[in-house]
Amino acid sequence: MKFANMSTSVNRDFRWDRVMLVLIILIGCSSGVVALVSDNAPPSEKKHYLSHPEPLSKVRGYSLPDKQLAEAPSVQLSNEVDPNIHVVDMKIKDVKLGSLLPCSCCKKTIRIPKNPYTRHQTAARSLPHSFFVKNASELAYGLSVNKLVEVQDGRGYRIDRLKYSEAVLLPEVRDLLESMGHDYADALEGTASEGTVFRVTSMTRTEAQQKSLRRRNRNATRSQSTHSYGASFDIAFMDRANEDDNCNRPTREIQKLLLRYQNEGRILIIPEGGCMHITLLRVTP
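Request: output the structure for the sequence above.
Response:
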């Protein structure tokens, strides 16, 4: 029994000695690693990623863009202007009618149902005072007996410089034009488009003028034109009176006007590539 107890005690002492030895070795190795690091060692070439922000100008390899903020221009008030008065617009706009680019009135810009030209011709022949204007002599005769009347600029419309027609219409067609002009002006009154007018580009033609136009315009009819009866006129443009306005409202209002007159059975329309051809269908009481 004594021998067994001595053997167990020796084994326990031996185990603790080994544990202590391992600990001493680990501590010595750690101290040696620390000693290998010197404060005078050169910096590593490896890039370092900062864990906190710095000004961009201090970061190696980054160049600031060569831009400066724009400065507001200094405003100098004239001695003649009271600085306490807010001037909205000291420039008075004087826009000459027709000096601005016009708005187009044709089948490319306005959607209007087309009435067959045969209906236009039938309507033209059936109007009161209607007759075929063959030449300048018959045109003069129609004016002398009041079967034709001269047409001038009016409210809501203006007459273009006519090259292949005369500013002459049947009395009832002239009344139609004036009525459309007033309705168009009323629709634009009080809006940014107030003062805009539609432009009439063709009215009564003699047979000779129709032939001349046919040589220039292949779309001109080869049969008897309703223009030669004083029953039709063309609207090709809307002229703005305000350079700050666009064509949205003038175009929309002329389309609404034409559709209303057409739906009421007062006019016939042919949308063409450069204009709207309009013929009086019936005389309003």
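The chain is about 35% helix and 10% strand.
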